[in-house]
Amino acid sequence: MHIGSVHGRFQIFHLEHLKYVREAYKRCDCLIIGITGIRFLLSPNNLAASRMAEENNPFSYFERMAMIRAALQADGLDLSRISFAPFPIEDPTKLEYFIPRSVHCFTTIREEWNVTKIAILKELGYAVTILYTDLKKAVTGSKIRSLIKAGDKSWRRSVPEAVMSWIEEHQASSRIK
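Above: the chain's sequence. Below: its structure in token form.
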């Protein structure tokens, strides 16, 4: 497959996100990492309003891209095969402006919202491959952010080392607290 895409909020890029990206990366020549939850792209009636609470989204598009890039580079992925784009799945009318319909979308089913996203993507004409279904989330961005807020350093075990370093180097955990 030539061009594939993964997508997520990545409001802290963690080890399960890395697994997801690796799996899609193996299946295409070029991978677009779509970053969702970009507020300025969303209309007031977007589909995932509950996911857009400010406290759940401490990192900007650029910061998430930088964290992900650092993690993927440290993991040995060829960054020349990877690009980034906004992925406004919460406002599907805007998606085709960033991700052409010819791009194959890889996803997972980790919660009910994933089922909704798959239906939206298919309705818009995107080909979709479900990489895996696993409703037992060991790691979540919410859990990691809660640990950081509580001052519990165990969050570090849930993220790639490069992400931990990026957060500490940029003193980004203070924004979560």
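Strands lie at 3-8, 30-35, 82-86, 104-109, 128-133.
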